[in-house]
Structure formats: C-alpha cells, structure tokens
Design a protein that fits this description.
- This protein is α/β, with parallel strands linked by helices.
- Among the domains are: 292 residues, FAD/NAD(P)-binding domain (3-Layer(bba) Sandwich), CATH 3.50.50; 123 residues, 3-Layer(bba) Sandwich (FAD/NAD(P)-binding domain), CATH 3.50.50.60.
- The protein is built from 23 helices and 22 strands.
- Strands 2, 3, 4, 5, 6, 7, 19 and 20 form an eight-stranded mixed beta sheet that branches. Strands 9-18-10-11-14 form a five-stranded parallel beta sheet, with helices on one face. Strands 15-16-17 form a three-stranded antiparallel beta sheet, with no helix packed on it.
- Helix 2 links the parallel strand 2 and strand 3.
- The relative contact order is 0.15.
C-alpha cells in the first residue's frame, strides 16, 4: 500500500527533530574502530564450518591466462561471460569449499534475499532455472550457484578451499603472480578481483569480549552443530539454552524469528531498529514463468532499475517494497513531467542541493530544474513521501507488537534509505513471545561482556551462547577487506594508490595495475540488485578481453587521461550524499556516522541504469577509448 502524502497527520518539524535526536544518540567518535578485525584470537570466526572434508594437496605452480579471485556471483558471472566469449584457460580461486560467495557463508536460519528472485538470479534464461518463490531463500540460492557452475563447467576451472594472500605484477615478465595460503604460485596474464563488498565479518570491540566462557559464533558462520536445525529453522538444540544475539540489522531480522521459536530464552540487544515492511512472499506461478518471451529477464531487471533511478517506464513489473516508494513519487509528480520525476527520485536519496544540480546536470536541464524549483520545492515534497512511508512502517510495529514500550523501541526514526530496508512478516511478531526480551540500548551499545554473559545498564544477562549479528566490514581499506595486497608497477600497492581516494576508469581499471580488473560498486553502477551490476561488469570484462584477442593485443591499462576523466565524471555527477549521510543514524551506509569525504569514492551519480547504458555505448563505439593497449607485455 503506497504512502499517502496528500492528507498526512504528522508534524514534519517534530519528525525532523526526532530524527536528529535519534541520530545524535548513536554518534560515536570511534566510527569503524568500534569493531575488531577478525584475526588472532578471533580467527575461528572466519573458519569454514561447512567443509565436510578439508582438501590436503601439494602446492601448485601453474600458469593460466585469466585468474579470477572469488567464487561468488561476481566470479561465477565473470567466468560464465568469458566462457561465452571463447575463453577456456582460466582459474577461479575461492577460499570456500564451493561456489556461492556470500550465500556459501551465510546459511543462518531464515537466510533469504530481499530482492525478487526473478531479477536477483542472473542467467535465468541461459539456465532455464525456475525459482520456487518470488523471494528465494539461502538453500535455493546456493543450489542455483551449483546450477551455474555446472552449466558453464566452472568446477573444472576451480581451485577451492584456497585463499589468496598476494597478487604481484612483474614488469619483467608482464605477468601477475598470485600467492595463496596453500603455498601456491600461480602466474596469469590477467587478474579479476571479485572479492565481494560484504565478505569479511566484523566483531564489536566490547570490553571483556575475550572473557566470555560460553559459546559464540558469527551469523556468517552459523554453528548448526551447536544449535541443531538447518537454514529452514527448527533449532532444537536450543530448547534448554539462554541465547543472546547482538545486532538487529538485516541478518538478525531473518534469524531472530527462528531463535525465538526454539530457544528457552532469547535476549535481543539492539542499538538501532531496522525498518520492517511487508514481505508478502508467494509461490512462483510456473505457467506464468513459462509464458515469458525471450529477453524478459533483461527487461525486468531494467524495469526495476528504472524505478529506482526515476526512469519510470509505465508498468511496475516487480511491484514490491523497493519500488513502492518510487510509485508514490510517480503519483505525486505525475503532472510534472519525466525530468522532474527523475529528479524527485534523486532527491529521495539525497537532500536538495542546488549547487549539485547546477554542476551535475547539463546547463539547460539545470536551468529548467531551477525554474521548476521556484514554483514548487521538490525536496520538501519528496521528504513528505519519505515521512509518510516511515510513519507507515512505524504504525506497523505499533499494530503488531502488543507491548507498547517494545513497539516504540522497534520504530525506526530515520529516512528510509539511511539503512537498507528490511521486509519480513514474522520478525515483529516474535517480540510477542514470552521467552523473547528486547534489550534496547537506546543507541549506546553494550557496556561489557562478562564471563557469564552481557552487562548493560546495571544488569548482567547470563546466557549460554552469544551470537554476533554484527555484519561485515565496509568502510575499511580494500586490502583489509579482500585479505590480500595487490602490487602493481614498480611495487606500487593498491592501498597506497587509493589512500587519498579511489582512482579508476569505469570502476574496473586502475592505472599502474595493468591487466587487472576490479569488480565492485565504487565508481561504477551501485544498485540494490547487486547481481545485475556484477553481470554488467562481467559482460564488459568479456568484451574487453575478446576485443584484445581480436586486435592481437596482450596488455591493457587505463590511460592517465582516461582515468582522470572518469574520476572527474564521478565527482561532477556525484549526488550531494555527504549532507544526507551526515543526517542519517550511523550504520554501514554512512561509514558508521563518518561519511567518506572524498566525492570520487562514490558510485556513478547518474544511477546504475544510466551507468549500464553508458558502458554499452562505450562498447558499441569499439575504440576502447581511455585504455592503452599493447601487443606485448614487456616495457
């Protein structure tokens, strides 16, 4: 149900004040330093609990044309697209025991995707796979990763249970050398870095975290040997256990209902509540699915991106919680024309800043927009849409949760896109269970962890098990998140290259790192449907490699001008996200209340759909402008 902004019964100024107060409660001077790196005494938090038999093998010394680091959707898509382009000499190096990436590691009970399966699953037309439901779960997603691996014969090119420790370019040989924790030395002409943006778990730096004597684990390495059950729930081993879970983000929202249904007692420690909207999952109509015409998948993905970017194209094919707020904007600005609709969607993600529109839009568009703003303040109207929607979210908590104090603690007071929205139909009702206690820290976090449990606000909560639902590192250095250093020309490290801000061409190439390709959202197309972006990057990768083969070229690197121009494009088109992020409650979207200051660290400001179109036009020109190509690897 769309939020109504015509007849609202809230006071906008009071809500603005409430949002500021709730943000200020949670601001911390330590930012990302409030979390511990998972190493040393905490290394067991990143061990692989899913491998039935660890592979023991001799160290490898081999050469491959293309090395792909990471076996998640990014690595699989890169391999699938280059296989389609005629490349068979490649290796996929993955630290897990199988393909899947985040879906290999995250098998916690209730794990599922908040993006519609018909657009989240890539290559659906190629594989012929039919998702069972509109929103898939972790077991089916992991199954589908296996389907892709089998379809494109990826297992025969894989090196599993192997973690990269270093990649180094040699100006003498014109090759990359990849070292691993198994003592491997693998040389490659090209390296694709597809590590994933959310792959390294983080732990809160709480006093006494080393003192606790009970059982602990991170949600990304769920311990079913301890809890019993499976990804579907039925955690029968917890029937006599007192359990604490720290965190109430997207992961916790999905597993807490199963913990509440199984544990003798469950204590949920919350710093900031998530936004919980209706999920309304449903079974796939197989007749409908079979009736789809060729090209339906790309059309549906583009339709979703169009709504999120303000490129409204009539019918909302996905029609879910993500597109709902943009449909509301559509109704609010229907008479204003397409350019104003698009601008309204931008403002939803960032507050109005006329300097941005002057420098970020073409002059004639900026003039039109400024004239329009003189008649109607688009920012205020969009803010009303956001307020109305979040009032709806808060009313849902009040309607479902019986205890009014608990319901109030579960109400999110921030703009909708300050945090990733959540969609769940059982989470809020879990707090009506007698065995479930919400410990609302009012943004403070915990006081300390003791030998017996958790201490907060003068009370010790004795528990048998502490589960950390504290997410993954986001704002830390690329090297720390990936787990290995990358050394380019003359020993330059990627950490040093990017220490003052990201510098790439199209988010994929970085000068000084020839024949190296980076997959990720920064300086590229950021979208909630991340597999779409990974697929587009894979198509782009395959095009470049195929073009090089056709031109008999063996080395590719961003030119100085090409990289500088792209960085300028990112800066010129960056939305005014800084003031928006500073107004948000702390979280990984705004680097824990300390937004990144460098505008070049942003994704492409024109939105993912326009980025994809820009890359397609670049490919269609066929001249690989901005890249330097050479017919040999020696300098």
């Amino acid at each position: 149900m769309a939020a109504n902004i015509e007849n609202f019964d809230f006071d906008p100024e009071k809500l603005r004040q409430k949002y500021r107060e709730e943000r200020d409660k949670r601001l911390r001077s330590d930012g990302n330093d409030q979390y511990k790196e998972v190493k040393g005494d905490f290394s067991y938090f990143v061990e692989d609990p899913y491998v039935e038999e660890k592979t023991e093998r001799e160290s490898l010394k081999l050469h491959t044309e293309i090395a792909i680091i990471g076996g998640g959707f990014g690595g699989m898509l890169a391999a699938a697209r280059i296989r389609e382009a005629g490349f068979d000499d490649f290796k996929i190096i993955e630290k897990g025991g199988d393909f899947g990436g985040t879906w290999y590691w995250n098998r916690y009970p209730g794990a599922s995707c908040d993006i519609e399966s018909y657009i989240y699953f890539p290559l659906l037309e190629e594989t012929g796979f039919v998702p069972k439901r509109k929103y898939t779960n972790a077991p089916e997603t992991l199954e589908y990763c296996g389907v892709i691996a089998e379809k494109f014969k990826l297992y025969e090119n894989s090196i599993l249970q192997t973690e990269v420790t270093e990649t180094k370019w040699s100006d003498d040989s014109g090759l990359w050398t990849i070292k691993t924790n198994k003592g491997d030395e693998i040389t490659a002409n090209f390296v694709v870095h597809s590590n994933g943006p959310l792959n390294r778990p983080k732990l809160p730096a709480i006093d006494g975290i080393n003192d606790y004597k009970g059982h602990t684990f991170h949600t990304s390495r769920w311990d079913y040997e301890y809890t019993g059950g499976s990804s579907h729930g039925d955690l029968k081993n917890l029937s006599d256990k007192r359990v604490a879970i720290i965190g109430t983000g997207a992961t916790a929202v999905q597993c807490i209902p199963h913990l509440g249904a199984s544990a003798k007692e469950l204590f949920v420690f919350q710093r900031t509540p998530s936004s919980i909207d209706v999920r309304a999952n449903k079974e796939t109509d197989e007749d409908w699915f079979a009736s789809m015409k060729s090209g339906w998948h790309e059309k549906r993905r583009a339709n979703f991106e169009g709504f999120l970017a303000g490129e409204f194209s009539g019918e909302d094919l996905v029609n879910d919680g993500w597109t709902e707020i943009f449909r509301t904007i559509l109704s609010a600005f229907r008479a204003s024309g397409p350019s104003k609709l698009r601008m309204a969607s931008w403002v939803l993600l960032a507050p109005f800043n006329k300097d941005f529109y002057k420098k970020g839009l073409k002059p004639y568009m900026a003039d039109k927009f400024m004239n329009f703003v003189g008649k109607e303040n688009i920012s205020n109207k969009v803010e009303m849409v956001d307020f109305a929607k979040m009032e709806q979210i808060r009313a849902r908590a009040e309607e479902i949760v019986k205890d009014s104090n608990v319901a109030e603690s579960l109400k999110p007071y921030y703009r909708q896109f300050c945090k990733r929205p959540c969609f769940h139909d059982e989470y809020l009702d879990t707090y009506n269970r007698e065995n479930v206690t919400l410990v609302d820290t009012q943004g403070k976090g915990l006081d300390k962890i003791t030998e017996k449990g958790i201490f907060f606000d003068g009370k010790e909560y004795e528990v048998d098990c502490i589960i950390f639902a504290t997410g993954f590192e986001v704002g830390t250095d690329y090297t720390r998140r990936s787990g290995y250093e990358i050394y380019g020309r003359k020993g330059l490290s990627i950490m040093d290259k990017w220490k003052d801000g990201l510098s790439t061409m199209h988010g994929m190439h970085s000068r000084g790192f020839p024949n190296s390709f980076f997959f990720g959202p920064q300086q590229a197309g950021f979208t909630a449907n991340y597999t779409h972006s990974l697929d587009e990057q894979s198509i782009h990768l395959a095009y470049i490699l195929k073009s090089m083969r056709e031109k008999n070229m063996s080395l590719v690197e961003a030119s100085k001008e090409g990289e500088e121009n792209w960085v300028k494009t990112i800066i010129d088109n960056s939305r005014d996200m800084l003031s928006f992020q500073e107004s948000c409650t702390p979280g990984y979207y705004n680097n824990e209340g300390k937004p990144m200051q460098a505008p070049q660290n942003n994704p492409y400001g024109g939105g993912a759909l326009n980025f994809f179109k820009l890359m397609k036009k670049w490919r269609e020109k066929g001249d690989l402008k901005g890249l330097e190509l050479s017919s040999n690897n020696y300098n």
